[in-house]
Amino acid sequence: xxxxxxxxxxxxxxxxxxxxxxxxxxxxxxxxxxxxxxxxxxxxxxxxxxxxxxxxxxxxxxxxxxxxxxxxxxxxxxxxxxxxxxxxxxxxxxxxxxxxxxxxxxxxxxxxxxxxxxxxxxxxxxxxxxxxxxxxxxxxxxxxxxxxxxxxxxxxxxxxxxxxxxxxxxxxxxxxxxxxxxxxxxxxxxxxxxxxxxxxxxxxxxxxxxxxxxxxxxxxxxxxxxxxxxxxxxxxxxxxxxxxxxxxxxxxxxxxxxxxxxxxxxxxxxxxxxxxxxxxxxxxxxxxxxxxxxxxxxxxxxxxxxxxxxxxxxxxxxxxxxxxxxxxxxxxxxxxxxxxxxxxxxxxxxxxxxxxxxxxxxxxxxxxxxxxxxxxxxxxxxxxxxxxxxxxxxxxxxxxxxxxxxxxxxxxxxxxxxxxxxxxxxxxxxxxxxxxxxxxxxxxxxxxxxxxxxxxxxxxxxxxxxxxxxxxxxxxxxxxxxxxxxxxxxxxxxxxxxxxxxxxxxxxxxxxxxxxxxxxxxxxxxxxxxxxxxxxxxxxxxxxxxxxxxxxxxxxxxxxxxxxxxxxxxxxxxxxxxxxxxxxxxxxxxxxxxxxxxxxxxxxxxxxxxxxxxxxxxxxxxxxxxxxxxxxxxxxxxxxxxxxxxxxxxxxxxxxxxxxxxxxxxxxxxxxxxxxxxxxxxxxxxxxxxxxxxxxxxxxxxxxxxxxxxxxxxxxxxxxxxxxxxxxxxxxxxxxxxxxxxxxxxxxxxxxxxxxxxxxxxxxxxxxxxxxxxxxxxxxxxxxxxxxxxxxxxxxxxxxxxxxxxxxxxxxxxxxxxxxxxxxxxxxxxxxxxxxxxxxxxxxxxxxxxxxxxxxxxxxxxxxxxxxxxxxxxxxxxx
Length: 879
Prior knowledge:
The chain is α/β, with parallel strands linked by helices. The chain is built from 35 helices and 21 strands. The strands form 6 sheets. It has a 6-stranded parallel beta sheet with strand order 7-14-13-8-12-9, covered by helices on one side. A 5-stranded mixed beta sheet has the order 17-18-19-20-21. A 4-stranded parallel beta sheet has the order 2-1-5-6.
């Protein structure tokens, strides 16, 4: 369990105040104090007075105000940010600084450092110092004008603070001389310089890479907790911010193994906590709220809209309809996110038909309106308070954050609502804001506000803080102790003259300072636990790493690594394999049969997928494992094909035969082509309003006309024909089922034979009429549906290079550019019979549920189901 030093325990028991650097350290001390009281047999005790530095300053101001002292009002965090933003921008007004806002944190940190050491800047020796001087003076002047107090500045608060109880400080590794002198004057005591406990056992461990290091530390935690479930462990990770996900994964796999096999074994009990928090904007709950507001302000892209439609933080009853709406938008290549454009999509979505998705879209548009009742918003910009009110109303109308939030999510929501309140209270902002400006401010505040939900007493705490832990842990592991990380390199403040920092004795401004701090931290760690492990990785990516020189010195005192530590490289997969029951190999290539009373779906798509790979056909048509399209700028290839199809249908309905085609004047033909293309584009635009910009529509119209002119030039070289059918719907009975087909075009020749044409707008594919499993099975299917008079069937690819033909004819000369059977017309009936049998086999496979992973060569290269079918681990032959 966590333990307090005797001095700190006695101080808190006597009712004294303990002052620590961070809220996380304060929480650990409260838990340790509770453990000490329980260990003493007490069941009721006064809460210990443990405060972080900022909380102590703010409480002192509240006490001064209660005594009747006229304390200026405190700046909220939002107002503080805004004032510093204005100060830095004013300081950089005559400098070539691309993004002044990036300097806000640096300037504020430098100002606090100056006051911590009691330093004064009188002249601008450099551009950096000039920015610091100007910004600090501007900020101080504005605070004075507003009669406001910056509560993060101890110097600004010093005149109002009178500690009511004996105050002890602990865990402050770096404390400026001016602040230390002020604390001495008000009788704030420091803890002893050296801990009283004996140093613990030390181990120094090295690993091949950081991944193995994290796994070993996680296994170490699991082993200690298996020996003592009441143990409390501390992991200090040098580069935790950039390695957070790696450590979460390693610790989750090692400490929550049993939850993987039995999710109910540790219901809701957290086993680890990470100190420091992450920006509010990184929480999915808050990201959803900001995306909703971005949509309302017209500042979002399609990814934001799609994320909103897929989020779990809205009404769960409408989630299925939202997912269908997202899929419809993707299938129609809709990138529009402006509310008027989305409004135009309600009717096309309703005709999909998907009335529920249309209802969801209509409700979302109404909820996102920033100017909707009951708040009547003027057209003019509004102050932050009005925007905060509108933002809250929009989120409420949208149903955010939905029901059934976890405890952590409830805390995150409360912190965001508190931030929204801070934004609303920014009365010092003089200007009115447009919606985009107000949203930008809220985004920046959420990105700057770090938050970590409060957690109960957890066995493992992970931190990147190198300060004194203050309490004693049962075990501490420090990871990432490479030479370039620890001791830290000197980091003098870039805005304060270096000579001034050295003269003030700032530790990070001299080469010896970081070494001194590292040695002090090592002594503190060793006295804060009976067992200390220190580790480093020999490489990080492709870069070799050296151990910290302090590790070399500590290695002389280290004990040999235990067998448990040496065995800590076992990954989760090995543990699962050892825990799993014996398995029998089983190959299942069949699913349930297609219901006899249910009509077949998919048409020729069924044949195409079944020929490519039976598993892919089963997954996409039976399990609906369809690829999710990604909207892209420009025209969607599928829409382009639809436009060409419709334009050709209109043209041939007005033309009917080759004689009319050849006799029509060139200008009349061009005029007719343009009319057909414009009509096709209008229909496409009606089905999906906003999917194309006007300039894109014009370019597509010109392209379509050129492509069709090239096609008609080829059509004139053909033998005489008349168009028998366009968009011909046919039912083809096969294998006891019925395929519903639609033939793009059927031409009749002068001898009564038929030519079946299937328009394509993509890249030409090969067609082998005698293949065992045809790559274009729709062509044999169209030939069967057209009847015995069929003499040729072809896929006609329309592109800028001119028409490309893929298919087969009964004899040479039927169509220029189309291959013919080498054996001539005599072999045509046999080929049709072969196709008939192949189609029957494909349909029978589908009906029986045959789903073997048996792809044709090259099929896997364009398939999205490889992780689903597991073709590589299954050992199936891969093209």
